[in-house]
């Protein structure tokens, strides 16, 4: 990459907080509390040897003046190997980056050596911002080749979250932007700008430049990413239409560093509970967990203690009169959040937000889209690129589970799903075995945001159905529970947004409501289908039926409870197994569900006749017809003992008397009333024992007339509230009798 002619010297960078390497080599210590002496012990002789070797290597590279060839230069080969081995084993200390970056970008060594040096830049803790700014200044003087510049940019993107501060790096935004004209470097420059962009960086001339590049290069994903970010900050400046959803904006820029960083961290964690890298200056030792959890802790500032205390005092005195940002690492209480809510600067490591309730509160209160965008970007990188599909040892598996659990808890806290998590699920479900991280994956499914049905069907329903039909009964119940929570989250979202809509947005609300109704209807139909098939496959187990009916307890109340103009009856493959169930819990659940269906349908009919709501959706006549068919079947079974004659549902119980007689069942007409029903017969036996303790014949025909009403009161006292509200609402005789008694 050739730039305009400038004096062949790097820019001078202010290094007030940079550790003086020469002072360190002579034994001087800028900060005694953080020096390597504090980490030494009698058992660290091997570490001392490595420190001495690294010290000699850094001293050699700092003194290199003329161009040196790698061939037949044993000293260079020795020190280069030392840097590489220590970097791969333990990572490099903060002080080493200034020396190695300067020599790699100064052009004093061959590209082969420079490449090896850049690939060895593995951080043990943090990377000083001053080292990065100093190395960027070498790009102005064209000392290194374009390949080295490209490799440097890729390294900078990979270790971006390890840089201790970003203010001076942000000041170079315009400098980086000027390199967009290089087609080879453009994708990586866009990636770096995407990480650096703030609202104040969005300027009309930059938007015009990006549009010109897009016209020249075509619709490139990296240009779309930057334009999308600009449009998010300043929609009035970016008026073009951009694609709604792009799975991956940027090329893989992690190169050899990401895997090595993870390997170094894993090795440190295995060796000790608290890592002890080569700390040669002011950097604090940090706990080194694996990649999933490394960014879940807010990074501490790498300035020394005295400066940090001075900064705190200054903020206490001057905060309310200035626009200074409040460091999140100092945020400890909710009162601090309220006092500094307009001055918080989020950490570069966005993953730390997930585990900080105060920052999650901030995200809920201040709807800053840029924060969500940064969080989605980080989460997308972590989930989508690093896990497709995850297979590792037990220790890493547990850490991955904890990471997914953390994401789920953050979604619950914010009461909304993350789009990057949705994309991860869509990519992962076709590869998922249904066992790995089952609880976490299904919990994340319950927070998938609303999408079009075509996308949900191909990415969620189809792969989930394949697993559902081929897995255990427990897995089927877990999926049904997850889909019930997904439906509830969608309905809660509808209630919140319905309350926030104004009358002036009636037209857009109607469009949104129509889309929501369609997507919810498809979800309910999908659950009805898999439930019907599952009951046949598993031979109608009570455990499975409970979860299916639990889902329909939400469905039956959508109109009144969630103000959604939609009611869908359960399919016959669910209704009749519940009606004929051997378990009283399932029958009681079904009675309550049918009672709530009736309540919602009556309310909808009344609203429709009164025409109170202009935008009121009308239920189809098929819904009322199907409800009436089910009611006839239930009343015929439980009350009038006429189900076999009067059930008019196409998949119902209607059978000829001649066929029923061939079953040789006596009194077949009463086989499913509230006395003889298999789910109720146990209650009938207990009632007879209490009413006629001396009669051991268990004559069920005695339960009639006044004894019938006594039996009903006995059932109600046993906690069958669903049966009670169904009978009192759907059967006139009992309803009138109870009212007259009252």
TrEMBL record:
Positions with biased composition (Polar residues): 37-46
Family: Belongs to the CENP-I/CTF3 family.
Species the sequence originates in: Grus americana
Annotated localization: Chromosome, Centromere; Nucleus
Lineage, highest ranks first: Eukaryota, Metazoa, Chordata, Craniata, Vertebrata
One BP term from GO: mitotic sister chromatid segregation
Sequence intervals crossing the membrane: none
Keywords: Centromere, Chromosome, Nucleus
Xref: InterPro entries: CENP-I
Highest taxon in the source lineage: Eukaryota
Main location class: nucleus
Record-given protein name: CENPI protein
Region (Disordered): 1-52
Underlying gene: Cenpi
Any single Gene Ontology cellular-component annotation: inner kinetochore
